Amino acid sequence: MITLEEINKICEKHSIKMVDFMMTDLTGRWRHLTMPINRFTQETLKDGVGFDGSNYGFAPVEKSDMVFIPNLQSAHIDPFAEVPTLSMIGDVYVIDLPENKRFDQDPRNVAYNAEQYLRSTGIADEMRISPEFEFYVFDHVSYYIDGHSSYYKIDADQAQWNTSSKSANLGYKIPAKCGYHAAPPLDRLSDFRSSVSLMMENMGIAVKYHHHEVAGPGQVEIEVEFGGLLEMADKTMLTKYILKNAAYSEGKTVTFMPKPIYDEAGSGLHIHMHLFKNGKPLFYDTNGYSQLSETALFFIGGILKHIRALCGFTNPSTNSYKRLVPGYEAPVTIGYATSNRSSVIRIPAYAKAPDKKRFELRSPDGTCNPYYAYAAILMAGIDGIKNKIDPQKAGYGPYDINLYNLSKKDQAKIKFLPQNLDEALDALSKDNDFLTIGGVFPKRLIEIWIENKKKESLRYKQLPHPVEFETYFDL
DSSP 3-state helix, strand, coil percentages of the chain (rounded to 5)? Predict the structure, then answer.
């Protein structure tokens, strides 16, 4: 445990002038507040710093006064601040007597409660996860939306559409859907990925490897090592902060939008996971399907039972469902299989050792709030274990076939992921009891989430689209 004295020594050593506090709002964006280092005292840790919670999407205006308490364990030096700055995450509290209490809707609180609930069940004491960060790096983005006009334009110098460019064109453009593991000079982003990977390593995020992804116009991936649920939610937020700011400093821009380019590969947030108890892995059984234990299969059964509702948190944008379409290695059906990238749950065949045995959930994407998404996945898995939901008996597979090429007869036997955000939110509104067990997800949080996301979907549906002008204007 880091103490304030130790923090002060770090600040003195690195000539820190400012302390920055990061809080996660309802949608999964970081907000921040900064103070001079001499204002950061023991009273700050005890009483917190006041702020307006309604602007974070949390509370009604009439009850919006909240405080955040700095989390010293998350402290790190911000590599992007011109003034030497120590940054740390804040936990949100509501004003109460005799003492303030944790705000139940605070994303970090939900993730913390999910971990505590797992331990209380006796099933396991740790869920370890490893997200794969897929994202696009562009050289330009512009967009405009109004009642009478709208457009967007993106550009990546290495994109195939720039082969005819007459300004400083040296060739070496990546064809559409041909970027997977491309080497320099086709891969213009290798040094960028190495640079940000070293930043991540220096800030406690262990990087497994990085590479160019399938899409030619700047799609890349950085994969990280495993960590606990709350730990990895924090590191997901920090990773996105590092990537966006590092790109910005180089005159580039990063997006985690699942489908920013039509007819190109989408970006997911594949999540590998397994459970441990007293340091021992619980997902391995040499005699089980794909060497998975009964506990692992029940966990899979719970996720697949609730997957349509989970999409409300793991795929919470209208753009999410432009990625979840056939033909792009993104899942569309509800099932599990070994080494099958068309399946929503894939069991890596190369992970053979007991402590490596796991599976990955391939549906989530980077528009999720990682605290809510990771916690919801865990709660679904726990429900599967408690109720012994056998995924094979429940009709979820295993489907060791290409699920994109099924006949209509076979398709009728399989359930599908939501095709749009409204379907996911409707599923979440009908199926959320598994989330509220143990007080992990407050009912009011789920209600607010659905209300806000429905508004986003309604605006999206009401705006005319350029394709509609192309298709219908002359009718």
Answer: 35, 20, 40
